[in-house]
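G., the chain you wanted modeled:
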Amino acid sequence: MSFSLNNLARQMNMADMREIKASGYSEAGASTTRRALKGFTASSSSPNEDINWNQYRLRQRGRMLYMSSPVAASAIKTNRTKIVGVGLNLKSSIDYQFLQMTPEAAKDWQKNTEREFALWANKRENCDAIGMNNFAGIQQLAVMSWLTNGDVFALFQRYDPTPLNPYSLRIHMIEADRVSTPNVSNHVVGGMSTDGINKKTGNRIFDGVEVDKNGMVVAYHICNVYPRQALREIDNVKWQRVMAYGKRTGLPNILQILDAERPDQYRGVTYLAPVIESLLNISRYTQSELMAALIQSFFTAWIYTETNPAQIPINEVGYGDDDSPDNPPDSNASDNPNEYEMGPGTVIHLKDGEKIAFGEPKIPSAGFDTFFKTICREIGAALEIPYDTLLKEFNASYSASRAALMEAWEGFKMRREWLVNMLCQPVYEVWLSEAVALGRINAPGFFADPRIRAAWCSAQWLGPVQGQLDPVKEVEADILSVAHGYKTHQQVTREHGGGDWNENVEQLGPENEALKKAGGIVGVSDVKNGFGSPTEGDGGNEQSE
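Predicted structure as tokens:
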């Protein structure tokens, strides 16, 4: 039986209703009677209204904080350095068993593909549409822009091949500001609606992102100028609609790199959004203390006149004497009776009725360092960067510093995975499609079956590894992990240097032979015999070998 709350209310006696007491969250976080919560009136709407309508202002504030706040710049650049570093390198790892290839043939194919990809990726004129960055530089730029502005876009363009570059693929990085809804207010003022309608398709547009009736992203609208760009002509402002995927190939035409925090969210929010207020206030506080210290560094004195307290001394600092043979320009000495000077061992007689008083400002405040670090800990917690890593200050114990690095590394690894999935791997797959189509890479069945294509495209992206505070202890732990099967040699190699264990073994063969001939140290046992075991004193640890 169905009934409405209104019908139920009419049937209930009003006296009984007055006896109903609040329960559950009504007496907790949702209370309107508790003193602490009376003024806490929270309101939220759809991601479009909460995010996109405020996007312009958030983006500008995040960008300005990056440019003006050392703590904000540290947060962004630390992520850039740890996520990308000098660049994420392609390591092809095809599913050779599914492709019915021998390990040797798969290895040759992978090396050849990596070599061919490097031909395109290592030169900025080969991969960047504007010729400014190689692929590693594009990755760094993507992370910086993504975190500062909320998102960034990689547009695929096609150029004519050159004698030194057989590939037509180029990447044009588009800053978040240029992706916008055509002819709406976000190109005039921020903090207003950015919604629109594509009159040809009937699709809705949310801040430049066009979606179909199911909410699927189908296109992006890119403006040829920035909002409020100086010297732009209103009549020349145009938007280009770019389909998200090619109809014939199914490959992406444009990539969006963002960190979504809510369902139905189509634009990213600056990484600094949760701490904008804290960053701004701590910057103001720091500047205030800095100015106070600067003022205090000037030795300030006041001269009081007892004969006439209301009289204001005129020209007490004087103007100095004119240049003369007796008073050269470089001299600070002055015979002006209205000018008082200070110097080492100087004794000056004041006039009758005058006395001197010196300023003694009590700033910078003694608690500045403690307060600053406390706020930075709060900021670091919100940004998933421990205070030690955020400020590059490792004064705690070994265990505490290692825990901070490990905690920070979890966030870096997560964002690296996002970057790989949203930029590196899609770019590689688009490039590989062209390489196979040109016949420079042999991949049978690549265009015939999506499963075969996925097997050929399988790859890993290697980047900076987590730092080590005590390499000896950590290496010994990894040796035990490999001995008991908890890790593989390949895993440990990637964790320590980001390399390839198989390639290292091949390289070590001739190197060890050369060392033996030269009488050098080869192997763990030789290291122990020559330099002493790390576990010396407990009878050695044969298992660690």
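The radius of gyration is 34 Å.

Shout if anything looks off.
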